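Morning, I've got a small favour to ask if you have a moment. It would help a lot if you went through both lines with me. Thanks so much in advance, here it is.

***
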Amino acid sequence: MASGLATPMLDFFRRGEVARDVRMMAAQGAIAPRPLEQLGILMVLTTDSDWEVRQTAEETLKLLPGAVLSSFIARSDTPADIREFFLKRGADPNAGPAPDTDQPLIDTDESGLDLEGNTEEEKALTFQQRLASMTVPEKVKCASKGTREMRSVLIRDPNRMVAAAVLSCPKVNEAEVEAFAKMGNVSEEILRTIAMSRAWTKSYGVLLALVKNSKTPVALSINMMQRLNDSDVKKLSTDRNVPEALRAFARRKVVAGQQ
């Protein structure tokens, strides 16, 4: 699967760095990321080292309607490894492609987030109070299905799997990603993931936030700077909050533009 779909959360499963309880949740279809990512995770789990996880993933795959599965396999953005995996399992290669959607194909978890409070503010407050005692599976669940307020907290979680689950949440929108890109206390891995996403870096606001964030890898920042307007490059050339290498590159770009 090395050449297939790449997302932070899916890569954790590929590398075998996910605890058994979270793998079991995913095998049950209780973690509900975007559809292609969900198919990739279930595919990985069918070869899991744990027999019960493998069997559970197989049973969950059987719950997916054949027509719906075939329509996703027919999409042009479906990686070849995922397509081949499901074609071997009987998916219709001639099905019409599914419409573009971020909604998961299956979500077997009906327990809810089990958070008290009626308003979003009350839920967020309760979440903050519970955070220290929450297990990783609970955090992953909140990251993938919770509120915007929950995601803004969990994107900074020291557990990299939890933070990755935030970016896999189908509810995450462009405004949230821009806010993440501005944060100085998120991991470099999160910033790198955002920077490598064509969908998210189509937004000028996300692009500028990444370049201005001192934690973004300099090589990525310099590459993205090529897409900034002259006014913002000029500001970067004197911005003491960005790395010197980036500031120097901006200065050279400004001088070149004046010649």
